[in-house]
Amino acid sequence: MKIAICDDEKKDRKVIKSHIKTHHAEHTIVEFTCANQLLEQLNSGEHFDLLFLDVQMPDSDGWEIAKLLKESKIKTYIAMVTILRDYMCKCFDRVDWFTPKPASEEDIHTILNSAYKKLFPMVLNFRSEKISLELTAPEIWYIEVKINNIYIYTINNVYRMRKPLKEIKKQLYAFSFFVQSHQSFIINLEHYHKLCGNEIILKNGCRIPLSRAHRETFFNSLADFIKGN
What we know:
Elements: E1 2-6, H1 10-20, E2 28-32, H2 35-43, E3 50-53, H3 62-72, E4 77-82, E5 97-100, H4 105-119, E6 122-128, E7 131-136, E8 140-146, E9 149-154, E10 158-161, H5 165-172, E11 178-182, E12 185-188, E13 192-196, E14 199-202, E15 207-209, H6 212-228
Helix pairs in contact: 1-4
């Protein structure tokens, strides 16, 4: 996810940032020291999946930013982080989560997981070795076809299932960051690192083949993904 931390206190930004970095998924983090900086970015068209906002800042406050965003209907998850505990009962009409300072690692991870659940709906529901599974889009690194089996490689596990690839593609259709790179591979561009010859290198070091037949589609999808982030 692309995350903004807006807080005038450097030590508080540092705490949140350090906890985000221990989360199981990788994130892009941008820091803001005041509300006006963040508002300028938002007004210029910048988008963040998740905002960590302080309530009180010298030039404005996170409370007003949250109100503006909720009124604009922008799809952003808002977490308020503050020492003002009395805001807790008031804030849920305009924010998605509240946590008091200092935020613990558990608090931040709970917020990240909650944001994933809200922003990225469950895209796969299936049974693997008699176990019912639900996966969110960001968990998936890539999908591979081997003979009559589909293998779904995620951050923590590999799942095998017997299902046509076309059925998987239907479920992923709503997410533009999934792209087919080869007749046997679909990758999640959120985990893309670089291209090396005819291989795509993911952030975990996995090497995925890029075929000539899918090359143009891949580069078009990658360009759109980068532009949107």
